[in-house]
Amino acid sequence: MSRLRIIIIDDAVKARETLRLMISENMTNIEIVGEAGTLPDGVKLIHKTNPDVVLLDIEMPGHSGLEILDFFSPERMHFKIIFVTAYAEHAVRAFELSAVDYILKPVSPNRLKQALDKVTLGQINAEQYQVLKEQTAGTWNKIALKTGDGIVFIPTDQIIYLKAEGAYTKFILMKQEPILVSKNLAEYEKLQSAGPFVRAGRSIILNLSRIKKIGKASDGSVTMDNGDTLAIGDETYKQLVEAIKTIKLG
Predict the structure, then answer these.
(1) CATH of the domain spanning 4-136
(2) Which among 31, 57, 67, 226 has most CB atoms closer than 10 A?
(3) CATH code at 142-245
């Protein structure tokens, strides 16, 4: 089996040394073909060495690692990226919802090995990185859902509601079949800060812009754009009424 060729892009010399040492001591199938301390130098190095994988720091002076997308068109992204980040947990949700590989600092040898072991060479899906870039900028036009058939990109405005199915979550969508993913509903609570989504009890997250009708308080139900009627409790009813007052529905 051929060795995986990687480069490291990080402005911190110590961080690059740490990654290099971890790889040399624990991963014999990895070849480090170059290092760079800035994003522009890293882009030049990518063109020069044609790596399989780029270990890329997010926050560097003058540039965000996410700006790498500005230097490569989708058809020219012949490498995979593993982001190395010190982002707080709330921001990590963006990585998970875009299905992009990442490692949290401080990096441990086991976590680095796990991330590199998961790398499979082949087609690069640049749309994942674009979704991540939008989400970290506060724009949530799409989310990426991992399914048994691969990664599906869903426009957030096409989500009607999310429903807990045990340890899984079912996405109910406009004009297409539901999608079941192997993550629990709590993993998608980040959507509430990204658009008109609200948690409606323990098992539902609603897209407020897809509510067709809210029944009377005594009815305890909402009807969605696809015709589904969902039961809600008194407290959830009050939350929905207040939430709808604060948004401008499309």
Answers:
(1) 3.40.50.2300
(2) 57
(3) 2.40.50.1020
Domain ranges of the chain: 4-136, 142-245
pLDDT along the chain (250 residues), means of 10: 87 93 90 94 94 88 79 76 72 56 84 80 59 62 76 85 93 93 85 77 89 81 92 80 62
H/E/C letters for each residue in the chain?
A: CCCEEEEEECCCHHHHHHHHHHHHHHCCCEEEEEEECCHHHHHHHHHHHCCCEEEEECEECCEEHHHHHHCCCHHHCCCEEEEEECCCHHHHHHHHHCCCCEEECCCCHHHHHHHHHHCCCCCCCHHHHHHHHHHHCCCCCEEEEEECCEEEEEEHHHEEEEEEECCEEEEEECCCCCEEECCCHHHHHHHHHCCCEEECCCCEEEEHHHEEEECCCCCCEEEECCCCEEECCHHHHHHHHHHHHCCCCC
